[in-house]
Design brief:
This protein is α+β, with helices and mostly antiparallel strands. The protein has a 7-stranded antiparallel beta sheet with strand order 10-11-12-13-9-16-19, with helices on both faces. Strands 1, 2, 3, 4 and 5 form a 5-stranded mixed beta sheet that branches. It has a 4-stranded mixed beta sheet with strand order 14-15-18-17. About 3% of the residues have low confidence. The two termini are 20 Å apart. The protein has 2 domains: 152 residues, Methyltransferase, Cobalt-precorrin-4 Transmethylase, Domain 2, CATH 3.30.950; 262 residues, no CATH class. It has 11 helices and 19 strands.
């Protein structure tokens, strides 16, 4: 909650509830019993790395977990201004975090919440612009979670935004190439007509109604694991597929291992009996890419062929993907900022049109007017915190599902979404 809740709405109770979970200090989280002499070092190091949260007024035990009950610091005027003054006087260039002073019920004590974003203006230096620190997950000899950045790391930080954005663009482009080639190669293996089409045109057209869910660090930098280790994660991030598509669970296809590639692992299944597939890629730089076809059943109206997208399947995949992604980022040890992308594309071609069935009557032969889209694709993206995916799952689902429904001309209300998950006992 303290990661995702609007900073103005944070309260003492929110901090108390978070601390009761006993989360130990890590690269993204720091407890301070009082205002330390070197607060600027922790703030700058977090900004230089993946961002994070500092809680001033929280004592920690020998295991670096918060002591219960929390005590706070003396509530006095100017606590927020004190943090800003420390930053402006000691960090170059300055970074302005989100700050909230959370008083207790008696207005005697308070906890100062400092929420630092992952910076786009790195490196941030301290000690009169002479030292650059980064935040690590391991304590050094001085029992600190901050280390001096090497010259190579400083060079990286100077080009931080540009290099990371170029890497992210490359990762997505590579994932697109891989899914297209995997589908084409496996389709040709299973289908003689597909083999003839590829021989004639050099490639196969993608199926109608492709649904893609992906998450990637906002600023990917270094590999988290090697490809064989990433490949072994399928069994650790797999959850029950309650839609019933695969006994092996989600991500689909339900296999325990994939095909190792130079920077990760891919897993593809092309259907033999219809035009569709499932595809997952886990990348060593933190990209989790999932794509599947969505169409079910066909009916002809006035010479046109309509195929249904089941809203229930869209809701199920959003739910399963976010839960699986939370496990993935926990396994690779990443709790920073992610870009979450949702894309529904190829919604019509020559003579074929995809329509969105209205839940709960979203079967192949749903009654009522057919809801089609005027747009070829629907795209949605958001920035989320990896460490709190479970906490923010429902707002993410509401947002994505509504945008998809709006593209097809109808409003999917939150109560209908909630009823679906209640029916599925989620």
């Amino acid at each position: 909650m303290i990661y995702s809740k609007t900073i103005e709405d944070l309260t003492w109770n929110d901090v108390e509830s978070f601390c009761s979970r006993g989360v130990a200090e890590n690269a993204y989280l720091d407890y301070k019993e009082s205002f330390p002499k070197n607060l600027e070092k922790t703030i700058a190091a977090m900004a230089n790395t993946f961002g994070g949260i500092i809680l001033v007024g929280i004592e920690e035990d020998k295991n670096n977990k918060p002591v219960q009950p929390i005590k706070g610091i003396e509530l006095e005027r100017g606590l927020e201004e004190k943090v800003i003054s420390i930053i402006l006087s000691n960090i170059t260039p300055p970074i302005i975090p989100e700050i909230k002073v959370c008083p207790d019920g008696e207005a005697q004590k308070a906890v100062v919440v400092i929420r630092i974003p992952q910076s786009q203006q790195t490196p941030h230096a301290i000690n009169r612009n002479t030292k650059v620190y980064i935040r690590t997950g391991n304590r050094n000899e001085a029992k600190e979670l901050e280390d001096l950045a090497t010259l190579d790391r400083i060079d990286w930080l100077k080009e931080h935004r540009k290099k990371s954005e170029e890497l992210k663009i490359f990762l997505y482009q590579q994932a697109e190439r891989r899914v297209e080639k995997s589908y084409s190669d496996k389709k040709v293996e299973n289908d003689e007509s597909a083999k003839r089409l590829k021989a004639m045109y050099g490639r196969l057209s993608a199926p109608l109604a492709l649904f893609t869910l992906s998450m990637c660090p906002v600023f990917p930098q270094e590999p988290f694991l090697n490809p064989p280790a990433i490949d072994k994660l399928y069994s650790k991030i797999r959850i029950r597929d309650y839609y019933g598509s695969s006994d092996g669970g989600f991500p689909l296809p339900g296999r325990s291992m994939g095909l190792i590639v130079n920077d990760g692992s891919i897993n593809t299944l092309v259907f033999k009996d219809r035009d569709g597939f499932w595809h997952t890629e886990l990348n060593i730089f933190g990209l989790y890419f999932y794509r599947q076809s969505l169409l079910h059943g066909t009916k002809r109206i006035e010479g046109k062929e309509y195929s249904v997208i089941r809203t229930s399947e869209v809701l199920c995949r959003l739910d399963e993907y976010i839960d699986s992604a939370a496990l993935f980022y926990k396994e690779i040890g990443f709790q920073g900022l992610l870009e979450f992308r949702v894309n529904l594309e190829n919604l019509f071609d020559h003579g074929r049109i995809a329509y969105l069935g209205k839940y709960p009557d979203d079967g192949c032969w749903s009654s009522g007017p057919i809801s089609t889209s005027l747009d070829q694709s629907v795209y949605f993206s958001d920035i989320v915190q990896a460490g709190v995916l479970h906490d923010i799952k429902m707002p993410l689902i509401y947002n994505a599902a509504k945008k998809i429904a709006w593209a097809f001309g109808w409003d999917l209300i939150e109560t209908a979404i909630d009823k679906y998950y209640e029916k599925e006992k989620r």
